[in-house]
Amino acid sequence: MLITYETFSLFAIFSIFVPMAGAIILMMVLAFEKQIDSLSFEKQQVELENTLQESKYMQLNQQIHPHFLFNTINLMLGLARLNRIDTLIKAMETLSLFLKFKYQIKEQLIPLKEEWKYTKYYLKIQELRFHNRLTITEDIEEAALEHVVPPYLLQTIVENSFKHGLEKKPGPLTLWIKAVDGKDSITLYVEDNGLGIGDHSFDDMMTKGQGLSNVKKRLELLFNSAGLDIYANEQNGATVKINIPKVEIKKEEQA
Prior knowledge:
Largest sheet: 5 strands, mixed
Order of helices and strands: HHHEHEEHEEHHEEH
CATH class of the largest domain: Alpha Beta
Distance between the termini: 84 Å
Helix content: 55-70%
CATH architecture of the largest domain: 2-Layer Sandwich
Number of domains: 2
Strand order of the largest sheet: 2-4-5-7-6
Structural class: alpha+beta
Shape: elongated
């Protein structure tokens, strides 16, 4: 049987283009698989980065300043020497609650009411230390207490006020703590009549001690729009202001 020219041409075209089409399909499959591998690798990198960030955050959370523990132990030793047993027991009970809360909390965000409860353990110990010299004023809006903040945030700022402002100042000491509920954020203020910030800049204050820099790093890890500022106030002390965006937390995440 003779093969016509048209049949031969079709056969030649078929013989040429079928392998080419197969090669193109193979290349597309390989490229798709490579893209899948790339996406999988990127996902692994993101998961690893998230794990590292969470680990870094928890390390920052678990920092306890030896300065506070040293002062608290000295307080209890002094109470023991003075035979003020009832006050000593109160100090020990409060320190126990403080440490228990410190190592129980594992969440990245907790309601402000829990953070405020924890902070009051710290303040109770300071009231025992300074007795009548210390006046604490609270101005906490109820609505603000329902929103979430990083754990140990307020307590760290309060501790910073004592360590760098109030402890070395003679005479009456005043601490003012305020929480304001805004439309899209809550704002925390911690104000003292301590030694103030002098000529130090914001960057200087970030490197002066671990407290403020710790808070700044944790806020940066959790939020894109949180703000932290420190400035001199009318009492010649220092005011720390923190603005935290409101975040919705599912009930099962809080449980």
